[in-house]
Write a structure and sequence with these properties.
- This protein has about 775 residues and is α/β, with parallel strands linked by helices.
- It folds into four domains: about 220 residues, no CATH class; about 110 residues, PAS domain (Beta-Lactamase), CATH 3.30.450; about 160 residues, Reverse transcriptase/Diguanylate cyclase domain (Alpha-Beta Plaits); about 240 residues, TIM Barrel.
- The protein contains 30 helices and 22 strands.
- An eight-stranded mixed barrel has the order 13-14-16-17-18-19-20-21, surrounded by five helices. It has a five-stranded antiparallel beta sheet with strand order 2-1-5-4-3, sandwiched between helices. Strands 7-8-6-11-12 form a five-stranded mixed beta sheet, with helices on both faces.
- Helix 18 packs antiparallel against helix 19 and helix 19 packs antiparallel against helix 20.
- The C terminus is likely disordered.
- This is EAL domain-containing protein.
- Pfam families: EAL, GGDEF, PAS_4.
- Keywords: Membrane, Transmembrane, Transmembrane helix.
- It comes from Sphingomonas xanthus.
- InterPro entries: Biofilm_reg_signaling, EAL_dom, EAL_sf, GGDEF_dom, Nucleotide_cyclase, PAS, PAS-like_dom_sf, PAS_4.
Length: about 775
């Protein structure tokens, strides 16, 4: 490992020792990255001093003008000072902008040649007093000129020392002016002293510049050595691999001998090649490997990465890469440095961190990362072959019940046993892994026709449906499976995972304990739901969601006694979206709280405009009953609208009792304490428990339309259920409403059985508030 660091740094240290005068004074931009970084540091040191030096130059020029105002033409002095002021101001402003505006610095970087040109131009301005005004000046003015020129040459040698090219040109230019002064006073001795003085300043400047450059280079190399040491530590787990380095064009500029040996390549085969030509010569792997695509994206965008696992070009080996971008002072990407190690064997066996990162700690099976890699490997081995592979996503049924009743410790042991049984089911035909929670994956690499895959899925379901013995407990779970087949259901790991997940979702919808193959319509449906989710968010912020109100009729008199507020969505392109299509979406996305609160406030605001005896009913989902948020919303809506609490009915379905019964009852009690009426909707259709009728103190029961329709048609079971519900309601003193009444025959049947209220299309379809009838107390007109 030490050889990695030494081999890649010896050249840099040698470069520092070989720094010659020609390199130090070169105006061309360095070709090597370290040289470019040093040059940027030199220029940055100059730029930091520019505002101060420009100010001193302007001040000195001003003093010069004042001292010569009595002997030199004012126009000449004014013109000279204006040019000096303009150059210094522009130089200072550009220096400040270069340091404070990264975009400007990137678009218009400071160049050594341009800096030297400006320095020579500025120094040349000081030749004007020495060459043209010295003879006309008085003794005191001449002395001031000599002192000023000596001070300027000394100051320039110090302030420009970080960029010796500019400093040398400045010293030479000012020296010309000083020499001209000595010639004009006819003093050979002073002329010689000027030359000696300039020579001493030049020698000192070059020595200081060499020291500055050497220290800057050493500092940069030391920082990079620290980064290299950090990267080398990542190789300690495998010891197989080495260092690599890219330039700003993402071409390989360095690769350690250890890494070359591990890859079986020579240095001339990799240097100056673009990284993509080495990792993916045919351009095919990035189309199949998620890891390769992410690596390419990170390298192009300059995003650091660690332990990025990618397959080799031939698909037989796996490499782990870590890298850090190298950026200049403006944040521009100028290269990459990183390490690579061969993890082909380590990821499947051994006790190191590479293996640990790919193993599920509970079951010892492959985790999500290794499953992804194995799936990529299977795909790459088959992308040009006539055979395929398949991915099974296995979701346990009733596992949550085990966790809730027996605890997580028993649940964890059950997961271990499930993993073992899965491995026994697939044997050598595939690889088993745990994705997370109670979801497992099987990569099937044997025969992949549908009949064979269906048989494998059936065997897995049968094996997992057999009882498990964990400690003293005998447990019964089941499994539901989604299947995706390569290449029909996806040609990349991500696509196969998504397809299998959609198939699993469809299998759960069809009933647990079965399996489903991916079909194209599943993706189209999922994509449609995703787009609907985006649209419903926009509709919530706009005016796309509205409320429609359906009348509730007194069965005896036919008068309207209330209205149910129903959520409607008119899509700008699709038209009216059915509630059963978008309500599940807003529940899954968590929008139900925001939308539900809006519905309650809107319904209360509308109901307060009706007659005092009319009630408004609002549907509430199970998700809204969590916590005290719903009670606060109801209280706020009642306070704002001043609607009487007993005029608000909140309808819940029996499904609210499937979760935390105590929490549900507590939430319902908070609502009842506000004075609102609680209504049990679709009674008898789902999770029925007569005990909840009294414990939750419902004020009304709504009979599901399926029973209403069946009872009107004379179906014995429906008739018996409706009679039982009505008898129960009378015994508890609870009102009843028959839902979905669409014909006069159904209405007569419900009246005859003793139902108190009726609701359905026969009495009126849901309409918006602006279309509600003004005659609220008249008997409702029957609608055929």
């Amino acid at each position: 490992m030490r050889g990695n660091s030494d081999s890649m740094s010896s050249e840099r240290r040698g470069g520092s020792r070989r720094l010659g005068l020609s390199n130090m004074l070169s105006l061309s931009h360095p070709s090597d990255r370290i040289g470019r970084a040093v040059r940027e540091a030199q220029i940055d040191a100059i730029l930091r001093l520019v505002p101060a030096t420009a100010g001193i130059q302007i001040l000195t020029a001003g003093v010069m003008v004042v001292s010569l105002r009595d002997t030199i033409d004012s126009f000449q002095l004014g013109l000279w000072f204006s040019v000096a002021l303009l150059i210094c101001f522009m130089r200072g402003a550009r220096a400040i902008r270069l340091r404070q505006d990264p975009d400007y610095a990137q678009a218009h970087p400071a160049r050594t040649g341009m800096i030297c040109f400006i320095i020579v131009l500025l120094a040349s301005l000081w030749l004007v007093p020495a060459l043209f005004w010295f003879n006309a000046a008085g003794p005191e003015e001449r002395l001031f000129m000599c002192v000023t020129m000596a001070a300027l040459i000394s100051a320039g040698s110090m302030t420009l020392v970080s960029l010796p090219q500019a400093a040398l040109l400045y010293i030479l230019t000012i020296t010309v002016g000083c020499a001209a002064l000595t010639i004009q006073v006819h003093s050979p001795t002073m002329f010689a002293l000027v030359l000696v003085y300039a020579g001493v300043l030049t020698a000192n400047m070059l020595g200081s510049a060499r020291q500055f450059i050497a220290h800057t280079r050493d500092r940069i190399e030391l920082r990079e050595q620290g980064e290299i040491i950090t990267l080398l530590r990542e190789l300690e787990t495998t010891g197989s691999g080495g260092l690599w380095e890219l330039d700003g064009d993402l071409s390989i500029v360095k690769m350690s001998q250890e890494l070359l040996d591990a890859m079986g390549l020579r240095e001339d085969q990799v240097l100056n090649r673009h990284y993509s030509k080495l990792l993916d010569p045919a351009g095919q792997i990035q189309n199949l490997s998620t890891g390769m695509r992410r690596l390419f994206r990170d390298l192009e965008e300059g995003t650091p990465f660690r332990d990025r696992a990618i397959p080799s070009a031939e698909g037989q080996r796996w490499w782990s890469l870590s890298g850090k971008p190298i950026k200049d002072r403006q944040g521009r990407l100028v290269g990459w440095r990183g390490v690579a190690s061969d993890i082909t064997a380590a990821r499947l066996s051994g006790n190191d961190s590479v293996r640990a990162a790919r193993t599920d700690p509970l079951t010892g099976l492959a985790n999500r990362l290794l499953i992804r890699e194995l799936l990529e490997e299977s795909v790459m081995q088959r992308w040009d072959a006539p055979v395929g592979c398949a991915l099974f996503l296995v979701d346990l049924d009733r596992f949550k019940l085990v966790n809730d009743t027996l605890g997580h410790a028993i649940g964890d042991q059950l997961l271990v046993e499930v993993g073992r049984r899965l491995e026994q089911s697939v044997r050598d035909g595939g690889r088993v892994g745990r994705i997370g929670g109670d979801e497992f994956a099987v990569i099937w690499t044997e025969e992949c026709d549908r009949d064979r895959l269906a048989a494998v899925a059936g065997q897995i379901v049968a094996d997992l449906s057999r009882s498990f013995t964990v400690g003293a407990a005998t447990l019964h779970v089941g499994a539901t499976i989604g299947i995706a087949v390569y290449p029909f259901d996806g040609e990349m790991e991500e696509e196969l995972m998504r397809s299998a997940d959609l198939a699993l979702y469809r299998a759960k919808e069809a009933g647990r304990g079965g399996h489903a193959f991916f079909e194209r319509c599943m993706f189209e449906e999922a994509e449609d739901n995703r787009l609907l989710e985006q649209d419903v968010r926009q509709a919530l912020n706009g005016d796309g969601l509205t409320l429609a109100y359906q009348p509730i009729i007194d069965a005896a008199t036919g008068a309207v006694v209330g209205r149910e507020a129903l959520l409607r969505w008119r899509h700008p392109k699709r038209g009216d979206i059915p509630p059963d299509q978008f309500i599940p979406i807003i529940e899954d996305t968590g929008l139900i709280h925001q939308i539900g609160d809006w519905v309650i406030r809107e319904a209360c605001a509308e109901a307060v405009k009706w007659g005092e005896e009319l009630r408004v009913a609002v549907n509430v989902s199970a998700a809204q009953l969590t916590g005290a948020g719903l009670a606060k919303t109801v209280l706020g809506a009642l306070a704002t609208t001043r609607l009487s609490p007993d005029r608000l009915e909140l309808e819940v379905t029996e499904s609210v009792f499937l979760g935390d019964d105590a929490a549900t009852l507590a939430s319902l009690e908070r609502l009842r304490a506000l004075g609102v009426r609680l209504v049990l909707d679709d009674f008898g259709k789902g999770y029925s428990s007569f005990g909840y009728l009294s414990r939750a103190q419902f004020a009304k029961i709504k009979i599901d339309q399926s029973f209403v329709r069946g009872a009107a048609e004379g179906a014995r079971d429906c008739l018996a259920i409706v009679k039982a519900i009505l008898a129960l309601a009378r015994g508890l003193g609870v009102e009843t409403t028959a839902e979905g009444v669409e014909t006069e025959e159904q209405a007569r049947a419900m009246r005859r059985l003793g139902c108190g209220q009726l609701q359905g299309f026969h009495f009126g379809r849901p309409v918006e508030a602006s279309q509600l009838s003004d005659d609220l107390n008249a008997p409702s007109r029957l609608i055929a």
